[in-house]
Design brief:
Helix 2 packs across helix 3. With about 230 residues, this protein is an alpha/beta fold. It is built from 10 helices and 8 strands. It folds into 2 domains: about 140 residues, HAD superfamily/HAD-like (Rossmann fold, 3-Layer(aba) Sandwich), CATH 3.40.50.1000; about 70 residues. Helix 6 links the parallel strand 4 and strand 5. It is about 40% helix and about 15% strand.
Length: about 230
Amino acid sequence: MKHLIFDCGGVLVFPRLGDWFTPMGAAEILGERARDLCTAKYLQAHRACADWLDETRLVGNVEEERVLRRQYIKALETRMGWHMTLGEINRLADDFTDNARRYGLFDDVKTWLDRWKHDYSLGILSDAFPSILEFMKQYGIYDDFGKVVISTQVGATKPDARMYAAILDALDARPEDCLFVDDRAANLTGAVSAGMQAVQMARSVFLPSELWDGPVVHNFAELDRLLKG
């Protein structure tokens, strides 16, 4: 095995607030309106406005993402009847794109990346907006990866074949030389269809909704044992 390719969410990072869409500073910025978060009305409003956060969009940088986040929040707050000021909308969007505390890094990530980068070419393949790249830099892991491909650079999300082709091209790698680690069964099946080997990450604190029929590990120590086995 020459190349290890990782998804981000559920493999490297987790959402500190329990979901991927709520800004870390939402409670402070929304005040009493924050009690509406995670209610049925809020979830319905989020689904109705989610096209603004479509990860198959081509988004060139964080500033372009920031514009989409503001449009999403404007549409959301209208449905919720929050009567937010423009300043509040901008603060909430900025908090989402700029506040790295929204993500937590799993405890074993830095240790194992530091070991593996000497033995393998490391890559990332993730359905994500550009802000995830800035967060990775702030957490000190971005430079461990030789190549990083996110969906908003490709205009597609996993398991679309274009995603796997993009990371193979970026790494200049043959699929049979690659191992892909993701938490979602469909994405692993897509990797296998692209000719890669694949392993599901099922962390005890962030279990995937569906297990697949292939190899499953629960942390990076288990993944290392699988690699050496």
